[in-house]
Write a structure and sequence with these properties.
With 252 residues, the chain is an alpha/beta fold. 28% of the residues lie in helices and 24% in strands. The chain has an eight-stranded mixed sheet with strand order 6-5-4-7-8-10-9-11, with helices on both faces. Helix 5 crosses helix 6. The protein is globular and about 45 Å long.
Length: 252
């Protein structure tokens, strides 16, 4: 069989549990997602919480009428939070069917329904489907190989496809993890696709995750408005949004 026709080799999915947190792994010790056992619809990891920073750029009362998409399911934290807590229409795209099976069996991912769809397939192809274009208010991109060494998709063309998914006030958030040279390359591709004025970034977490946010249309809300929204986000949804404002700024 030629290399082009060999079936895709997907990693095994493993689980570890310390009693408080349950972790998802792809055949390595690297953590690919986590769930708080006694609060399965909360977001347990700090960098994943930061991927909800798009909430700072929309009116809180409008959130339930919006749409979210997650590329790379992990433990399903973002999709579950958007579906359960934010009451959004939510779509997740995951290549590995074992990840979907484990998320449904061990990480409280609900079955598909009127507000939830989990698509098993290639994210790069799925985001080019015409029905998705211009419909997503929040796009979360967190796709790494099983060694957590590099993003699966990281070109300017990929980020242009992501931008095409967004509504006019939509945002993409991306988890970038790795050495500085790799981060700089990824950030340059995002800036090429979205424009420098549309891109914001957090400082890295202790673990080295840097979350970058890119807007379909550049928007710089006044500090007072961002603070007011951060307070509302904390009160309604329990995310540490006021803390975000101390570590989050435009890249330009």
């Amino acid at each position: 069989m030629s290399p082009a026709k060999r079936p895709l080799q997907l990693p095994e999915v493993n689980i570890s549990d310390d009693g408080e947190l349950r972790y998802l792994h792809l055949a390595t010790p690297w953590v690919q997602g986590a769930m708080r056992v006694d609060a399965p619809y909360d977001i347990a990891l700090e960098y994943v919480q930061r991927m909800m920073a798009w909430l700072l750029f929309v009116e809180p009362d409008s959130v339930a009428g919006r749409r979210a998409m997650q590329l790379g399911l992990g433990a399903g934290a973002i999709t579950k939070f958007c579906w359960k807590k934010l009451r959004m229409r939510s779509t997740a795209v995951e290549l590995n069917p074992r990840v979907i099976h484990v998320c449904r069996g061990w990480f409280k991912l609900p079955p598909d329904g009127p507000r939830l769809a989990v698509v098993q397939g290639d994210a790069g192809a799925e985001i080019r489907q015409p029905g998705h274009l211009g419909t997503m208010d929040a796009l979360a991109v967190d796709m790494y190989d099983d060694e957590a060494a590099a993003p699966v998709f990281d070109s300017a063309d990929f980020y242009r496809d992501c931008r095409a998914l967004l509504t006019d006030d939509g945002c993409m958030t991306v988890n970038l993890f790795g050495r500085r040279v790799e981060f700089d390359r990824s950030l340059a591709h995002i800036v090429e696709a979205f424009g420098a004025d549309a891109v914001w970034a957090f400082r890295p977490t202790r673990e080295g995750n840097t979350v970058v946010l890119a807007q379909r249309q550049p928007l710089r809300p006044p500090r007072a408005l961002l603070l007011a929204r951060a307070e509302t986000i904390e009160e309604r949804w329990g995310l540490p949004a006021r803390k975000w404002l101390r570590t989050f700024k435009p890249v330009a």
